[in-house]
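quick one: FE2/S2 (inorganic) cluster bound model?
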Amino acid sequence: MSEPIIEAKKDGPYFIKGPLKLIDASGKETVIDRPWAALCRCGQSQNKPLCDGTHSKIGFKADDAKLYKP
Ligand code: FES
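yep, here:
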């Protein structure tokens, strides 16, 4: 089994590779039963927490310069 990887796509979602289980704030679990998933970071997906491609329609621009600052 490989390690999970999270990669920020330019002006797009967080692309996650590896087996994973998402748990929301209420404790609801969503098992991702495929080797990858794309998580919305633009906030506009109609299928949260997953990306539905809306970021490209709205012209989302990620401020990745802030991503790695504490
Ligand atoms: S990042 Fe793709 S819909 Fe939000």
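The pocket of FE2/S2 (inorganic) cluster is lined by residues 12-13, 40-42, 44-45, 51-55 (CB under 6 Å).
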